[in-house]
Write a structure and sequence with these properties.
single chain, 415 residues, alpha+beta, Single alpha-helices involved in coiled-coils or other helix-helix interfaces, Heat Shock Protein 90, 12 helices, 5 strands, elongated, disordered C terminus, Sig_transdc_His_kin_sub3_dim/P, transmembrane, protein dimerization activity, Sensor_HK_TwoCompSys
Length: 415
C-alpha cells in the first residue's frame, strides 16, 4: 500500500529541510492570525447589528493583508537564510496596507457607546494585530535596525491616526500597549525560530565541509605514501643502473644481472603504483571547485561560483565535471590574463550544464607549441564517453567560455 504523497515528500526531506518547513508554516500561522482575529471581532459586532455596511470592505482588505503577510514571511525567511535580497518592497507595501486599513476602520466610525462594545473594539483589534504581524515579519525579513525603526513608526502611526480621528484615549492606549507587548513577544519567537533554522543549515553545511576535508586529507596522505613508494624504488633503480654502467664499462658479466634487477624493480614499482592508485582516480566536483578558486585567487583572478543542484549529481557525473573544472582553470592561467572567472552549474531538464567563462583573452591568440592544445580534446573524449558534449567559444570580445553538457537521463538509461 503506497503512502500518501505528503508523507512521501516529508520522508524524502533532509533534517534541515524539515526544520525549515516547520518554521515556515509556524510563521504562516502568525500571518493568518491577523485576519482571523479581526474577523472574530467583526463577527461579534455583526451579530448585534452594530457594524457599518462599509466596514465589510475593510474586512476584505484584512484578508488581502493576511495573504500579503504570508508572502512577506516567505520572502523574509529566504532573505534571512541568505537566499535572496531583503524584501523591502513587500515590507513597505504590507505596512502601508496595515495603516490604511486601520485608518479606514476608524474613519468609518463604528458606534462608541456602552451598548455597542464589540463594534467599538474592532478598530483597536485590527490595529493591534496589524502591528504585531508586520513587526514579526520585519524581524525576519529586514535588518535589525530597519525592523526596529519600522516597528516604532508603524506603532506610532496606528496610535496617532486614531487619536487624530477622535478615538477615545483608552482605545489608543490599548492599541499602543497591545502592539508593543504582542509584537515584542511574537517577533522574538519568530526570530529565534528562523535563527534555529539557519543554525541547522549551517551545521549541515559544516558537516559536508568536514566530510570533504576528510576526503582531501586522505588524498594528501595517499599522495605522500605514493611519493614514498616511488622515491624509494626510483632511488634503487638509479643506484643499480649506475652500478650496471660501471660493470659494463669493465666488461663484467654481472652488469646483466644488475639490469635484470632494475627491470624487476621497475615492474614491481609499476604494480605497486597501480594498486595504490586503484580507487583513488575519481575527481570530486566540490574539491576541484575549491582548488580552482584558490589557485585563481592566488593569481589575482576574481573567481565566482554559481552552483544550482550540484549536490543532486551522482558521483560519476561530479567526477566528469570535476575534470572540466580542472582543465578550464588550467587554461585560464596559461592562455589568458583574466581578471575574473565564473563557474556556473545548473541542473535542469535531465542534464547538467557547466559553464566556465573568463575575460582577459588576447585579441591575437599566442602561437601554440608542438603537442599543445590537447586538453579540450581530451575533455571532449571524456564527455563523449558519457554521452556529453563540450563547446568552446568567445561570447564577446576578450572573453572565452567553455560549456560542458552532461545528459543525466541518457546516462542513467545507458547504465
Amino acid at each position: 500500500m503506497s503512502r500518501p504523497r505528503p508523507i512521501r515528500r516529508w520522508q524524502a526531506m533532509s533534517k534541515p529541510q524539515r526544520i525549515e518547513l516547520y518554521v515556515r508554516w509556524s510563521l504562516y500561522i502568525v500571518a493568518v492570525a491577523q485576519p482571523l482575529l479581526a474577523l472574530g471581532s467583526v463577527a461579534a459586532a455583526a451579530q448585534q447589528d452594530e457594524l457599518p455596511a462599509g466596514f465589510r470592505l475593510v474586512v476584505l482588505g484584512m484578508l488581502v493583508a493576511g495573504a500579503l503577510n504570508i508572502v512577506l514571511f516567505r520572502t523574509g525567511l529566504a532573505a534571512y537564510l541568505g537566499r535572496r535580497p531583503h524584501p523591502y518592497g513587500w515590507a513597505a507595501l504590507s505596512a502601508a496596507l496595515s495603516v490604511g486599513l486601520t485608518l479606514a476602520a476608524v474613519l468609518m466610525g463604528p458606534p462608541n457607546a456602552p451598548d455597542a462594545p464589540a463594534a467599538a473594539a474592532a478598530p483597536g483589534v485590527m490595529a493591534t494585530m496589524s502591528a504585531t504581524c508586520w513587526i514579526t515579519a520585519a524581524a525576519i525579513a529586514l535588518p535589525t535596525r530597519y525592523a526596529l525603526s519600522g516597528g516604532v513608526a508603524l506603532v506610532a502611526a496606528l496610535t496617532v491616526l486614531p487619536t487624530l480621528a477622535g478615538s477615545p484615549a483608552a482605545a489608543v492606549v490599548g492599541i499602543a500597549v497591545g502592539s508593543v507587548v504582542g509584537s515584542a513577544m511574537a517577533a522574538a519567537a519568530a526570530r529565534c525560530s528562523a535563527w534555529m533554522a539557519k543554525v541547522v543549515w549551517e551545521l549541515d553545511r559544516a558537516r559536508e565541509a568536514q566530510a570533504r576535508l576528510a576526503v582531501a586529507e586522505e588524498r594528501l596522505r595517499f599522495s605522500r605514501d605514493l611519493h614514498d613508494v616511488l622515491g624509494r624504488n626510483l632511488a634503487t633503480i638509479a643506484l643499480k643502473s649506475e652500478l650496471a654502467v660501471q660493470l659494463a664499462r669493465r666488461q663484467r658479466p654481472e652488469a646483466v644481472d644488475q639490469m635484470t634487477e632494475v627491470q624487476r624493480i621497475a615492474q614491481d614499482s609499476q604494480r605497486e603504483v597501480r594498486e595504490v592508485v586503484r580507487g583513488y582516480r575519481t575527481v570530486e566536483l566540490h574539491t576541484e571547485l575549491i582548488g580552482a578558486a584558490s589557485v585563481l585567487r592566488a593569481a589575482n583572478v576574481d573567481c565566482r561560483t554559481e552552483l544550482s543542484g550540484a549536490d543532486a549529481l551522482p558521483a560519476e557525473a561530479q567526477s566528469v565535471l570535476g575534470w572540466v573544472v580542472r582543465e578550464a582553470a588550467t587554461n585560464v592561467l596559461r592562455h589568458s590574463e583574466a581578471a575574473n572567472c565564473t563557474f556556473r552549474l545548473r541542473v535542469s531538464g535531465g542534464a547538467a550544464v557547466l559553464e566556465v567563462e573568463n575575460d582577459g583573452v588576447p585579441a591575437v591568440p599566442p602561437a601554440r607549441t608542438e603537442g599543445a592544445g590537447s586538453g579540450l580534446r581530451g575533455l571532449r573524449e571524456r564527455l563523449a564517453a558519457h554521452g556529453g558534449t563540450l563547446t568552446a567559444a568567445g561570447p564577446g570580445p576578450g572573453r572565452f567560455r567553455v560549456t560542458a553538457e552532461l545528459p543525466m537521463a541518457a546516462r542513467e538509461s545507458v547504465a
